[in-house]
Amino acid sequence: MKPLSGLRILEFDGLGPVTFAGMVLADLGADVLRLTRSASAGAPVFSDVGGEVLHRGRAAVAVDLKNPTDLARVRDLIASADALIEGFRPGVMERLGVGPEVCAELNPRLVFGRVTGWGQTGPMANQVGHDLNYIALSGALSMMGEPDRPPRPPLNLVGDYGGGAMLLVTGVLAALLEAKQTGRGRVVDAAMTDGSALLTSLFHALGARGLWSEARGGNLLDGGAPFYRCYACRDGRFVAVGALEPQFYAALLAGLDIPATEAPQFDLPAWPALHARLAAVFATRDRDDWAARFAGTDACVTPVLTISEAPGHPHNAARATFVDQGVIQPAPAPRFGGEAQAPTPQPGPVSLNDAVERWA
Question: Of the residues 31, 70, 131, 160, which is catalytic?
Answer without folding.
Answer: 160
